[in-house]
Amino acid sequence: MAFPAPLLNFVLLEPEIPNNTGNIGRTAAALGCRLHVIHPIGFDMQEKARRRAGLDYWHLVDCVEHASWEAFLAAENPARFWLYSAHHGKAHWNASFQMGDYLLFGKESAGVREDVFAWFRKTHGDDQLLTLPMPGSDGLRSLNLATVVAIAGYEALRQFRLNPA
After folding, report:
1. Measured distance CA(129)–CA(56) in Å, rounded
2. How, if at all, do strands 9-13 and 129-131 pair?
3. pTM recorded for the entire structure
4. What CATH number has the domain bearing residue 126?
5. Would you tell me how many other CB atoms lie within 10 Å of the CB of residue 37?
6. For a tag site, which of 102, 143, 147, 164 has the least CB within 10 Å?
7. d(CA 113, CA 123)
8. Model confidence at 165, in pLDDT bands (50, 70, 90)?
9. Which residue would you say has higher pLDDT here, 10 or 53?
10. Are 131 and 88 in contact (CB under 8 A)?
11. Distance CA 107, CA 113 (A)
């Protein structure tokens, strides 16, 4: 299936939970976004495993798998890149998204690796670090990854509807 240019690019670095990736794939398809899955991952992405998990809509997902972080950078070379973090960055609604932007999300257990985080800050600066404020979060580490991706995608969509590119 040929997909049109994506609204956004969701980038999952080493995801660990298949249900999160499945939900993020569904969000990507609903919004017209491309999903980039960077290995190693914590589950099987083969068609048989997807069928067993009930992902009967996966043919609607514009998904690109990358063997490593380095392979992703070589293939995509993203110019406009945002990194979502539970602990660093400005509120995501203060970002000015543009169509085609890349939004990077780390793995569920640990977020983005330290080497990738350092590279990102050096290459794109602290202004490209985003977080979802959690004012009622005493004792809460973070939100579910699929929830964060959906919130990020719909904030960008809101901005695009108000300020079409």
Report:
1. 34
2. unpaired
3. 0.91
4. 3.40.1280.10
5. 20
6. 164
7. 15
8. low
9. 10
10. yes
11. 9
**pLDDT tens per residue across span 100-122:** 999 999 999 999 999 999 999 99
Instruction: Say if residues 85 and 111 touch (Cβ distance below 8 Å).
Output: yes
Residue 82 lies in a domain: yes
How many domains does the chain fold into? 1
Residue type, 83: L
Q: What is the pLDDT of residues 50-85, one digit of tens each?
A: 666 557 788 899 999 999 999 999 999 999 999 999
Nearest to residue 16, comparing CAs of 52, 42, 54, 37? 42
DSSP letter at 6 equals P
Element (H, E) at 145: helix 145-162
Q: Letter for the amino acid at 15?
A: P
Q: How far apart are the first and last CA of the chain?
A: 26
Read out DSSP for 82-99? Answer: EEE-SSSSEEGGGS---T
In a domain, 109, yes or no: yes
Peptide bond into 40 cis (omega under 30): yes
Answer yes or no: is pLDDT of 19 > 90: no
The model's pLDDT over 130-139, given as tens digits with 9 standing for 90+, comes to 988 876 666 5
Contact 79, 124 (CB under 8 A): no
4 belongs to a structural domain:
no
